[in-house]
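Field log, afternoon session.

UNIT: design team B
ACTIVITY: writing a sequence onto a fixed backbone
BACKBONE:
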């Protein structure tokens, strides 16, 4: 007997039925509109990458986190887990030809094999914004401003989210001032990035394993209570520019934002919902050295990764499951075969005007037609019967308030 096939997608992967696409389109439309408004140019790339490229960026342990395989020519390949290494490869490939700074954006499907938790899948779409070839903090401001604009376009406000901002450079200066040698900073960043994800006792053990003595461990935890960024000129400048740009209310200083990835070099940031219900909505920062790891020339860069999973959960919690599906377009139906041609002609005429038209594919009774039109989210509906053909006009019904007006056939 043949084994029964499961109709569920592989664990951690997703199907998008039409009702799911409504939410996805709401998010993607906001991504694209915000990127366009801020002058970012769209790009795309292959979803399969060289394993070596990903390993150079994240180390050999990346093999535990991604889907990788050998193809028929025995090349070691992988599904991309994020877009930044691919972007670095593309820029390095044409670094002599590009006119810097560049502002690029994409919505990329990414795959990461890891433990499933709330807000984390093994497949997701990620909106990326990157500015490469600019050292000014205005690059961070442009990236953050576009991300906040996208959230506002989705209907959220600064009461719903806050972007927590810090600086790896500033934190390094605080650690050095406390007597912790620069050689130990990478281990401190890695350990302290786990705060909130594991008990402080385990983090302290990680610090000790990294070579810190008890005094240094205590100093590292004490630094996490820093509340002022006055000693960091780049953060002072960033918050001032954000005020000028009109989104400072979306930001807050948080020294505890570290970002575990080793390639970040300066300002870093993560966005969270203000109720603390979900994982980070997006994150990113300055990564001035990444291109050099794959053979490119040193180039200043700022980037942001904004996944679709958490923000969709936030929108559903904030506005309700059914709120994304606004009524739109016109449904056109007919009573019998004698009115089919008139229905097709009317649909074509309305489509030529730019209307979205859902044309019934077969004759229906009026009650069934209007019920389907309502369930399908049509804003208006026209049902053509024999009398309408004789009169040369029909009635178009507003599905919201049930009022009717005439329309010529």
């Amino acid at each position: 007997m043949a084994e029964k096939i499961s109709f569920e997608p592989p664990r951690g992967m997703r199907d998008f039925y039409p009702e799911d696409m409504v939410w996805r389109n709401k998010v993607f439309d906001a991504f694209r509109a915000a990127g366009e408004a801020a002058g970012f140019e769209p790009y795309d790339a292959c979803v399969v990458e060289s394993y070596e490229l990903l390993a150079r960026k994240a180390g050999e342990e990346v093999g535990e986190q991604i889907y990788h395989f050998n193809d028929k020519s025995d090349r070691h390949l992988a599904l991309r887990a994020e877009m930044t290494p691919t972007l670095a490869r593309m820029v390095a490939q044409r670094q002599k030809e590009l006119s810097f700074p560049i502002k690029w954006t994409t919505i990329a499907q990414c795959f990461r094999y890891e433990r499933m938790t709330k807000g984390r899948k093994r497949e997701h779409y990620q909106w990326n914004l990157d500015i490469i070839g600019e050292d000014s903090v205005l690059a961070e401001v442009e990236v953050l401003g576009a991300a906040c604009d996208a959230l506002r376009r989705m209907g959220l406000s600064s009461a719903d989210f806050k972007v927590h901002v810090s600086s790896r450079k500033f934190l390094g200066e605080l650690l050095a001032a406390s007597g912790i040698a620069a050689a130990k900073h990478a281990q401190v960043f890695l350990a302290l990035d786990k705060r909130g994800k594991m008990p402080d006792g385990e983090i302290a053990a990680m610090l000790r394993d990294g070579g810190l003595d008890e005094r240094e461990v205590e100093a590292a935890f004490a630094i996490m209570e820093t509340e002022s960024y006055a000693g960091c000129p780049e953060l002072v400048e960033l918050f001032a520019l954000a005020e000028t740009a009109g989104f400072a209310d979306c930001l807050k200083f948080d020294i505890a934002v570290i970002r575990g990835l080793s390639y970040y070099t300066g300002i870093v940031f993560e966005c969270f919902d203000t109720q603390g219900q979900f994982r980070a909505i997006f994150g990113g920062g300055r990564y001035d050295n990444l291109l050099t790891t794959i053979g490119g020339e040193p180039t200043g860069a700022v980037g942001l990764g904004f996944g679709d999973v958490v923000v969709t959960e936030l929108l559903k919690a904030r506005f309700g499951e059914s709120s994304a599906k606004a009524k739109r377009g016109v449904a056109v139906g007919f009573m019998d075969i004698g009115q089919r041609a008139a229905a097709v002609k009317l649909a074509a005429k309305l489509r030529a005007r730019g209307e979205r038209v859902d044309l019934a594919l077969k004759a229906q009774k009026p009650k069934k037609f209007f019920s389907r039109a309502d369930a399908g989210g049509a804003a208006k509906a026209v049902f053509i019967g024999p009398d309408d053909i004789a009169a040369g006009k029909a009635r178009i019904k507003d599905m919201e308030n049930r009022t009717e007006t005439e329309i010529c056939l």
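LOG NOTE: The first helix runs from residue 18 to 37.
NEXT ACTIVITY: expression trials, pending approval
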